[in-house]
Each structure stands twice: as C-alpha cells, then as structure tokens.
Amino acid sequence: LCTQLADEQAVRRSLVFPFQFLSAVEVLKQGNLPGANRVMDAVNQAIDYSLANVPKFEGSTLIALDSSGSMTGRPQAIGSLFAATLVKASYAELMLFSDNARYISLNRRDTTLTAAQSIPFISGGTNFNAIFQYANRAYDRIIILSDMQGWIGGGAPVASFAEYQKRYAAAPRVYSFD
After folding, report:
1. How far is 151 from 125, CA to CA, in rounded Å?
2. Measuring CA to CA, which residue among 151, 153, 149, 119 is closest to residue 133?
3. Distance between CA 17 and CA 146 in Å, rounded?
4. Parallel, antiparallel, or unpaired for β 93-97 and 61-66?
5. C-alpha distances out from residue 71 to 44, 82, 96, 127, 131, Å
6. In angstroms, rounded to a whole number, what is the distance separating the alpha carbons of residues 106 and 119?
7. Which of 23, 54, 152, 168 could, after both became Cys, cross-link 89 (CB 3.0–4.6 A)?
C-alpha cells in the first residue's frame, strides 16, 4: 500500500483529488493500527502528488472558508482540506469567515494535510456578507466553501456583493460548494 501511495505517476494517473484521501486519514488518526505512521506518511505524500490532478485557475482566486460553529467536525475537516488544496494548487488567497472575516496565510511548504490542519476555526455564526465586506481587492473568482447555514446578515449577500463589485471594479465568478 505504501509503495502504491508513494508512486507519483500512479497517483497522478488515478485522477484522485486530495480531499478523497480524508477517510484514510481519519481511520489512521484513530491510532493503534500496525504501521499507521508509515501509512500516514505515504498518504501525506499521495495527497501532495494528487495536487497535480487539481485544475489550475488563471488569474486571482479567493477561497472563502466558513469557520462557523456549524462547520465543526467532518465539515471542518473536508472544508479545510479542500481550501488547502485550492490554495496550494492555484496560489489562491484564503479567507475565513463566520460573524466577520479575515485573511490567513498558509505555509505553502507544508504538506497539504498539515496546511489544512493548521487552519484555525473561529466558531460563531455564518455571515456570507462578510466575505464581500472584507475582501480587499478584485478577484477573478471567489470560491465559497460552507455548509450553507447562513443566518446572519439577512439572506443572500446581494447588496454586499454589488458594493464589492463597485468598490473594486470587479466582476468575479462566484462558486459555492456545500
């Protein structure tokens, strides 16, 4: 298994995306499995090799990761790994949002899994407006990763998005993943 996971060409040919290794990581973290540390090292390497399977985006990208209380647990793990993958694969910028929003930087030299695990979670509510209120430049695309449990700010962020577009003369595509 470790030999297969450490085979860069096999991982690339598999077309597996980094977040698809998450189940293996969760089982290995339960501990007390023979060879678990060796397999975890190989999974880490395979995750990084699988970055080659992630589409590269031209231009600038903002990843907005929901770090509210409702994301605790598996949604947090999936969202963090997905965010770290996109940040590393496309040199995107990362913003966390809950009641408010803030930019954070990931160490691109960390493994993708380590970078994902370093993302702090804020808790609080989910305010989609905060993404557009705190974004500080024009982006070609904004990718929102959330469980879509947004109850702060009065529904869809139509007005704050329009203000963002006007403020930066921006016309980004917005993608939202639940």
Report:
1. 7
2. 153
3. 19
4. parallel
5. 23, 13, 12, 13, 16
6. 8
7. 54
Residue 98 · residue 149 · CB < 8 Å: no
Q: Return the pLDDT at 153.
A: 61
Q: Are strands 173-177 and 93-97 parallel, antiparallel or unpaired?
A: unpaired
So what's the pLDDT on residue 56? 86
Q: Give the per-residue pLDDT at 154.
A: 65
Tell me how far apart the 2 most distant CA atoms of the chain are, in Å: 57
Q: What is the three-class DSSP state of 173? A: strand
List b or e across 137-159, with b for residues whose CB sees 16 or more CB atoms inside 10 angstroms. Answer: ebbebbbbbbbeebebbeeebee
Cβ partners under 8 Å of residue 76, min gap 6: 67, 121
Q: What tokens does 85 get? A: 């993958």
Nearest to 45 by CA among 105, 4, 92, 86: 4
Mean pLDDT of successive 10-residue stretches along the chain, which has 178 residues? 89 82 83 83 90 88 95 91 92 95 94 93 89 97 91 77 97 94
Sign of CA dihedral 142, 98, 148, 70: positive
Residue 2: which H helix or E strand, with range? helix 2-5
pTM of the model: 0.87
For residue 38 the two structure tokens come to: 């060796």
The residue behind tokens 């080659």 is 52
